[in-house]
Amino acid sequence: MTALAPYLFFPGTAREALTFYQQVFGGELIVNTLADFGRQDGPADAVAHGMLRGPVTMFAADVVGQEKALHVEGMMFALLGAAEPDVLVSWFARLATDGEVVDDLQKRVWGAHDGQVRDRFGVLWLIGYEED
Predict the structure, then answer these.
(1) What does the alpha-carbon distance between residue 65 and residue 63 come to, in Å, rounded to a whole number?
(2) What pLDDT, in 10s, does the model give residues 86-121?
(3) Contacts with 8 (C-beta within 8 Å, 6 or more apart), sequence order
(4) Residues forming a β-bridge with 80
(5) Burial profile 39-53: b = 16 or more Cβ within 10 angstroms, e = fewer
(6) Closest Cα partner for 22 from 69, 75, 120, 91?
(7) What is the DSSP secondary-structure string of 82-126?
(8) Which residues pair with 78 in a beta bridge?
């Protein structure tokens, strides 16, 4: 079954970002460099294709040439009910490391818990859950 997964383009920090996201979410990290693919259009150690496969799946690469790097406005990644509450609380705290808590993870008047955090790479996340 396929699911929506982000593919992010970083300005030379794809390996750092994917490693950070692996530390946050867990999972298996696979990184291929430009050299691995026989490409010569950028630094040999630049990430041509990276994948984090696990509870959160995402892809990333380093930009080369005239490609545009990640610049996020008017969008967030929502992880609402994507794991058990204690796991989501942990993800929120880890994403906030060297990032910015935009809206504390808290109980809302409608009964659910949610909050927003912008990680150190500029990605905005909405983390939330409902109590049983």
Answers:
(1) 7
(2) 999 999 999 999 999 999 999 999 999 999 999 999
(3) 14, 17, 58, 59, 60, 61, 70, 121, 123
(4) 128
(5) eeebeeebbbbbbbe
(6) 91
(7) SS-HHHHHHHHHHHHTTSEEEEEEEE-TTS-EEEEEE-TTS-EEE
(8) 126
DSSP string, 115-132: EEEE-TTS-EEEEEE---
Q: In Å, what is the CA distance from 26 to each residue of 35, 54, 79, 113?
A: 26, 7, 15, 22
Tokens of 102: 């935009």
Of 126, 129, 121, 128, the residue nearest 21 (C-alpha)? 121
Residue ranges of the chain with per-residue pLDDT less than 50:
none
3 state SS of 35: helix
* Token pair for 37: 């693919």
Place of tokens 């705290």: 93
Instruction: Tell me the one-letter amino acid at 122.
Output: G
Whole-model pTM? 0.94
Interacting residues of 25 by C-beta distance below 8 A, sequence separation 6+: 52, 54, 55, 56, 91
Q: How many CB atoms lie within 10 A of CB 73?
A: 6
